[in-house]
UniProtKB/TrEMBL annotation:
Keywords: Cell cycle, Cell division, Cyclin. Belongs to the cyclin family. This is Cyclin N-terminal domain-containing protein. It comes from Prymnesium polylepis. One of its GO terms (molecular function) is cyclin-dependent protein serine/threonine kinase regulator activity. Residues 7-94, 110-216 form the Cyclin-like domain. Residues 106-245 form the Cyclin C-terminal domain. One of its GO terms (biological process) is cell division. PANTHER family: CYCLINS.
């Protein structure tokens, strides 16, 4: 049920044009809340949409793009009333406040954006979108909670750079149009591993277990009810396939 809920929240994020950070924060809030307050199946979507509401207030509130309560009711197909969503949102806010849980705690997308910037992986480039895809693919899988967010981010970048190994990319993200000054994907992957000495990985071997899990998630037969992430990034990549058969077996 958790996987179905997260898959639906990906569609909600797209429908409301929310930030990726909002989605990651919402999933984290759901997991932490349910650890202490398990709910019956009929209320799981209520927890999910309330977590998304809370996350959007934090991530989207400053620019005024946080949807109003009535829009959350609409996106749930009126399964819950405004009061139910407002009450659950309030209970969750109190729950996290009482435990001094910081909504700014880094998650996988936080580390992913740092790595993309450090490695000058331009936004909306193929490598950028593929790394976003592989990281987001892990949100539905409960077992991936066993990996640190920084390791998930590094593994996603590692796979993406493997998949664009034949491409040259700008060495500097500040000057993407200076195509005469380019770096290979391999050199960026080497830089990724070098930077890992200060993080949770210091060798290629340290990344491979998480990389293997991500590749298996991608290679598994697609459940038509759990394909929101694939649909999202396939559209962003112009309808191109998200995976290449030759890549799936490598380094898994």
């Amino acid at each position: 049920m958790r996987a179905i809920l997260v898959d639906w929240l990906v569609d909600v994020q797209l429908k409301f044009k929310l930030k990726t950070e909002t989605l990651y924060l919402a999933v984290g809030l759901i997991d932490r809340y349910l650890e202490v307050h398990p709910v019956v199946r009929a209320k799981l979507q209520l927890v999910g949409i309330s977590a998304m509401y809370l996350a959007s207030m934090y991530e989207e509130g400053q620019d005024g793009s946080c949807p109003e309560v009535r829009r959350w009711v609409y996106i749930c197909d009126n399964a819950y009333r405004q009061k139910e969503i407002s009450d659950m949102h309030r209970r969750m806010a109190v729950f996290f406040s009482e435990r001094s849980f910081s909504l700014s705690t880094p998650n996988a997308v936080t580390f992913l954006e740092q790595l993309q910037k450090q490695l000058s992986i331009g936004k909306n480039s193929e490598a950028y979108l593929l790394s976003q895809f592989y990281a987001e693919l892990t949100l539905q899988e409960y077992k991936m909670l066993g990996y640190r967010p920084s390791l998930i981010a590094a593994s996603a970048v590692y796979i993406a750079l493997d998949m664009v190994a034949d491409q040259s990319m700008p060495c500097s993200i500040e000057y993407p149009r200076q195509t005469s000054v380019t770096c290979s994907a391999a050199s960026k992957k080497a830089a990724l591993l070098a930077g890992g000495a200060q993080a949770t990985w210091s060798t290629e071997k340290a990344l491979l277990p998480c990389v293997g899990e991500m590749r298996r998630l991608d290679a598994a037969p697609q459940n038509p009810k759990l394909n929101a992430v694939a649909r999202k990034y396939q559209k962003l990549l112009g309808g191109e396939p998200l995976t290449r058969p030759a890549d799936r077996g490598s380094r898994a």
